[in-house]
Amino acid sequence: MASFNSNEWRAICDKFTNAQNLTEIESRNDKENDPFRSKYKARELLREIYCSLKNFEAGEAGLRAARLGAVEYYLGVNHVDTEELSAGQEHLMNCMKLLERCRVSSPNVSLFIQVRNQLGILWAGRDETETAQGFLETAESIYQRYMKEDGSPPTDMTEYFAAEENLLTHQERIKRFELAYTHTMYYLAQVYKNLGQTERAATYCHTTLQRQLQLNQFTPMEWALNAATLSQYYITKGRYMEGRHCLSAATVISDLAGEVPSETESERREHLRQKRAEIARCWIKYCLNLLQDAKKQLEDNIGELDTDRQEELKRARRREEEEEEKGRKSALLFGSEDTFDSIASIEEKVMCLFPLDFTEARSVFLVGQNHVTQAKDYFQMDGYVTDHIEILQDHSALFRSLAFFEEDLERRCKMHKRRVDMLEPICNDLNAQYYLMIRRQLMFELAETYNEMMDLKLALANRQADTQSLDNHTIKKFNHLCSASAKYFQMFLDSLCSPEGKFPERLEEEVLRPALVARFRVARLHSRLISTSPTVQLDNLNKSLENYKYVVQYCEANPEAGAAVETELELSKEMVGLLPLKINRLNARMDSNN
């Protein structure tokens, strides 16, 4: 075989440059009815290069194999891009075969890694996750071994077909090689997520995001959303420092979102507003979870604030704060020189340790509430019903968590009233047929909120006087809250009935506990209504008994249901024993009065 003269070689290099240009630039302008025009032209050029290389001996065997392998690689990617996956796979596997005979070295390591990245994506797209994992983990170990044993800036694949004067600088080579490895990490993060290895997926995702910033290779909005999504993983694991760091970085980077070509200005603005609203929703979850987790730490067995525990945690916190400074330094931090300070200044505005008293809880609540306003501004009721209501439910939950920290019962009651004012109009206006599940959630929450307010009103009245002498105004208020709670529990139960109004014989798994709890609460609420009229009292007690009996009988007929409502079942059995006596006494009293 002959080797190339300089003109022939230059012609090959030019063809390669043209093929790259057609693939990366020209193809963006291809018409919708001929979307792959440029890619097909590039394919022809790559085939011509392949034939030329096959017919000539290009010096050293290793370099020839790498060049042929690179053309197979580009042909593989080209076929995948034009949705011809089997042909794409064949070319990529040909590339692997050509490389089998070579030792991993500076001239070919980049190709070794990138062909495996492509095969990883290809198999992942077919839901063959384990096969994808094999290719990508091999790519990862090739990179790691190369960096340990050699580490010099490797040849980029485009340089196989570049004239002497067009070779890349060391700097550019390093950047491209590191970017290829960043892609390996990114795809592995997806693979581990699909395999259910969430912790591993989070670590890889974090590393990917960090590397993208360092290499300055990212699309700001996409990066920000990935960081915000990662924060949700950390939050569920109670790792609030990392969660806060991801969200602060997401906020800073999303502000860098510059021009997006090929979109009209107003479309682009809408797109950015939506993404920022999505990041705001991640912040809401951060604040809400932080408050809820703090509440779990602080509550006693009846759900009130345990002051001894509070003191103990405050002492522990002072020790923790000294430790935190040290820990912070070793955490995985995002940022380049220019974004680092902006990220830190957002972090300073919200705590990542559990709030332990009202002042701290309020500061977290207010950050959450600001993000509620931002998210609601985009996800409006008109057009985004489900999203809008989810945001309102989160806002209500923020109030509920804050109320736990409030010692003043009157103010606590006002917070619950805010929740009612927020949810009640929506619950009553929603179309019952289309939004059944959401309405059920709202009915249940409203019933519980009224119940909470009723308990608070009673506790307040009891502080001021003994129960015997409740004034009429208080009784009226108490009965109003009690009836409102019962009304919403009953609405929830009615929503389970058939169109003919028949209650189901057997309750579905997902409504089993709520339905039995609602029955139990309705029973309790009816027995608590205050009335001076014996007839009304009797009526209330009978309704109460009927609902307690339902819980007991349902659990007798379906023993597995008992596990879902242990406490409620125990109390219901007790009441089924006690209430008939009370009813008989009341009947006897009424008879003797007649």
From TrEMBL:
GO terms for cellular component: cytoskeleton. The keyword Coiled coil applies. It is found in: Cytoplasm, Cytoskeleton. Pfam families: KBP_C (PF12309). This is KIF-binding protein. GO terms for biological process: central nervous system projection neuron axonogenesis; microtubule cytoskeleton organization; neuron projection maintenance. Activator of KIF1B plus-end-directed microtubule motor activity. Required for organization of axonal microtubules, and axonal outgrowth and maintenance during peripheral and central nervous system development. Residues 288-315 form a coiled coil. Belongs to the KIF-binding protein family. Keywords: Coiled coil, Cytoplasm, Cytoskeleton. Its main location: cytoplasm. Gene3D superfamilies: Tetratricopeptide repeat domain (1.25.40.10). InterPro entries: KBP, TPR-like_helical_dom_sf.
